[in-house]
Design brief:
- The chain is an alpha/beta fold.
- The protein has 2 domains: 5-308, Rossmann fold (3-Layer(aba) Sandwich), CATH 3.40.50; 317-502, Rossmann fold (3-Layer(aba) Sandwich).
- 46% of the residues lie in helices and 11% in strands.
- It has 21 helices and 13 strands.
- A 7-stranded parallel sheet has the order 3-2-1-4-5-6-7, with helices on both faces.
- Helix 7 (183-191) links the parallel strand 4 and strand 5 (196-200).
- Helix 17 (422-431) packs across helix 20.
- The longest helix is centred in the last third of the chain and has 20 residues, at 483-502.
- It is globular.
- The structure holds 2-acetamido-2-deoxy-beta-D-glucopyranose (NAG) (3 copies).
- One 2-acetamido-2-deoxy-beta-D-glucopyranose binds at residues 281-282, 284, 302-303.
- GO terms for molecular function: UDP-glycosyltransferase activity.
- Keywords: Glycosyltransferase, Signal, Transferase.
- Residues 1-18 form the signal peptide.
- Pfam families: UDPGT.
Length: 523
């Protein structure tokens, strides 16, 4: 079914970079191979939380740089998105070419997590990735760190390396655009010495904690999964340092990763699973970092661009689903969408249904709920939703028929209940919609805290995270989506979205950088 999770890796990369910075060698000048002029190849996982920034950049390339041929190598689930982008781009610009999609075989990073039964669903349908913040969360990460760093079995990893190497050779692009969570693609690109760039949904503080002066990642910036505020208050500093040490000690010894590296090296992968060399000064790195909505860092490495939100919105919401938009326009509507990685357990479902009932009693709001039951359960969940849907004020749908960002920016969504993934966070920021963040794992706690700190929302059900109660769901949604508090949250969200717009249109900035590299190919 849908992709699972690929969240932790980003933060772990940050820690690994931190460890390696001390020993960073002087970079040797590199000669990159220049492929066919005006050709771009994206190599990404299909999970929307990871690939939306790439898809948005591709859309802008089609519309604003129609001389460039865009190729996309990803897993088959992304094919639809590519078709949609191509057809809408043609409406924007009749010169726009179509994206050439190259479906990859095998498992994407998120599907590869299913290789490990303890990370799958339990009998209640609760996903094994869900973990609390603080020390208990660190324990979860430490136990699974080798899986989060590289989820593929060694043969799967090698097969990806090989198929991607032939794809690169076949397309011969002037530039390869990479996803930081797709190690075999990074390895193939670098083994072939191709000109490349990274695009990431994450903020600088997620990617470059280790580059900050005075070991700032230890004491100055919130540790991964801590949910601590920035700057770290004195009374939490010792805890922050301790949590970092726990993380570091878990990456210090990784026998499974070492064995996998040996296997891959023996099979012709030159530099396998070497995450710490990810950023290079001569390789553009494009992030969604939005100055008005981030934890500011002291040091920004060379060639890093803060593009602001890179949102995917193929067409106006009305064009995507007129019927749904007609319903939404009736009343102020709250969108509940905890991301495509999260499927509900029976308990989560029951609590959310009760929470929604309480919201309906307390307000005049409507609710659009993107809901999927854990795919290991075959309960008749539709019947559970009947009492909600009979009110006419709730729409439950397993798939959103409209891009989340198109919904958010339609002007009819009053508040967004999200899990605090980097993608949803930035979409909400760009659209100026306040958020109720219900964090579920690792990096999402820091986004929950950030949303609260900059005043665009709250960390929902904070006392019980990652679990909820019907009462806290009601209280927090009512607070952000109605009354004088709601108006204050909306005003702040709009103010920050205006500031974000001054940074430029993220996907256009990103496309400009990629287009320049694409035009540097050979005849
Ligand atoms: C066409 O695409 C460009 C670049 O993405 C964008 O700035 C512009 O608003 C689009 N125009 C329409 C009519 O969609
Ligand atoms: C940034 O990357 C581009 C493309 O590789 C390169 O031409 C440029 O010299 C790099 N800038 C720095 C400061 O290294
Ligand atoms: C590549 O294409 C660009 C225009 O898109 C052109 O300016 C450049 O000269 C071309 N390079 C070569 C080597 O043909």
């Amino acid at each position: 079914m849908f992709g699972r999770i690929s969240f932790v890796v980003v933060a772990i990369i940050g820690i690994l970079i931190a460890l390696q910075q001390q020993f960073k060698p002087i970079p040797e000048p590199r000669d990159y191979v220049r492929g066919k002029n005006n050709t771009v190849l994206f190599l990404v996982n299909e999970h929307p939380g990871l690939s939306n920034v790439h898809a948005a950049t591709a859309q802008s390339l089609l519309e604003s740089h129609p001389d460039i041929q865009v190729h996309f190598g990803s897993f088959p689930k992304l094919a639809n998105t590519m078709t949609r982008i191509s057809s809408y781009a043609k409406r924007n610009n009749s010169q726009a070419k179509e994206i050439i999609f190259h479906p990859l075989s095998g498992l994407s990073s998120s599907d590869a997590y299913d290789n490990y039964p303890h990370l799958r669903y339990d009998e209640d349908g609760r996903l094994g990735h869900i973990s609390p913040h603080g020390i208990e969360g660190i324990n979860h990460i430490s136990k699974n760190i080798q899986i989060y760093i590289d989820p593929w079995f060694q043969e799967e990893h090698l097969a990806h390396f090989k198929q991607i190497t032939s794809l690169i050779d076949g397309v011969d692009p002037a530039v390869v655009v990479l996803d930081t969570n797709f190690a075999p693609a990074i390895e193939a690109t670098r083994a072939r010495k191709r000109v490349h760039a990274f695009i990431t949904p994450n903020m600088l503080v997620d990617n470059f904690p280790g580059e900050q002066p005075w070991l700032g990642f230890l004491w100055k910036y919130p540790a991964m999964g801590s949910g601590f505020p920035f700057p770290i208050p004195l009374k939490l500093m010792a805890q922050n340092i301790y949590q970092n040490f726990r993380l570091i000690s878990s990456v210090a010894k990784m026998p499974d990763i070492s064995a996998k590296q040996e296997f891959l090296k023996a099979n012709g992968v030159p530099d396998p699973i070497k995450f710490y060399g990810l950023h290079r000064d001569d390789v553009p790195w494009i992030t969604q970092t939005t100055h008005a909505a981030t934890v500011p860092v002291d040091f920004v490495p060379a060639n890093v661009t803060c593009a602001g939100p890179m949102t995917l919105s193929a067409a106006p919401a009305e064009d995507q689903d007129a019927e749904l938009m007609a319903w939404i326009k009736q009343k102020p509507t709250v969108l509940i969408n905890l991301g495509s990685a999260f499927h509900y357990s029976r308990t989560h479902t029951r609590i959310m249904i009760e929470g929604i009932q309480k919201i309906l009693e307390a307000t005049d709001l409507q609710i659009l709920w993107k809901y999927m039951l854990a795919d290991t359960l075959d309960d008749d969940w539709r019947s559970w939703m009947v009492p909600l849907e009979e009110t006419g004020r709730v729409t439950v749908t397993p798939w959103l028929t409209v891009d989340p960002f198109s919904l958010l920016s339609s002007g009819h969504i009053t508040a967004f209940v999200t899990h605090g993934g980097a993608s949803g966070f930035h979409e909400s920021i760009a659209a100026g919609v306040p958020q109720i963040v219900l964090p579920l794992w690792t990096d999402t706690y820091n986004y929950a805290q950030l949303a609260e700190q900059i005043g665009v929302g709250i960390w929902g059900c904070r006392e019980t995270s990652p679990d909820w109660t019907p009462e806290c769901l009601r209280d927090d949604v009512v607070k952000v989506a109605s009354g004088p508090d709601g108006m204050a949250f909306t005003a702040k969200a709009k103010e920050i979205s205006a500031a974000a717009r001054e940074q430029g249109v993220g996907r256009d900035t990103s496309a400009g950088i990629i287009a320049k590299l694409a035009r540097g190919g050979r005849e």
